[in-house]
Amino acid sequence: MQVFLDTQVLLNYLKGNSDEKAFPKLMILLNNKKINTLVTKQVVDEYIRNLANVKNECLKNIEAPYTINCNSLKTLNGEIKKARAAMHKRLIKIHEEKEKFKKREQNIKLYLNNPNIINDDSDILGKAQVRYLKGNPPRKRKERNDCNLKITIYLGQ
Predict the structure, then answer these.
(1) pTM for this prediction
(2) Distance of CA 38 to the CA centre of its chain
(3) Suppose 38 and one of 4, 26, 77, 139 were both cysteines; which one would form an S-S bond, judging by CB atoms 3.0 to 4.6 Å apart?
(4) Structural domain count of the chain
């Protein structure tokens, strides 16, 4: 069986927005040679382009600053103790989240590590343009009704 995952599926998994159990199961099937992956150069390039942004977004979410709200000096010591306890818990969570992220990133690298990456040659680009003209995949209304669409078909190499 051959499996193709779109870049958005990979990025959602990397962010932790998708089923955490499905991708590792996929990796087991891949390692046991029960499935083959279909990977295109376009998917690899798009993943690499978005990787830094996803990393930064995930780190920003888990490394948010902690604020102490204190109205008087009498309560400051108690608030500092609460803040220390909260920061300790947060540091543990940050470490756990970073480890999960690393594991997800390693799984995606294994998935993308395909010796038979499908390169985007002129034949594939031509087929993609035909699909685009047919409206596959569907697009926003503005894009569908754009009459000034310039079409270039590449012949030969």
Answers:
(1) 0.66
(2) 17
(3) 4
(4) 2
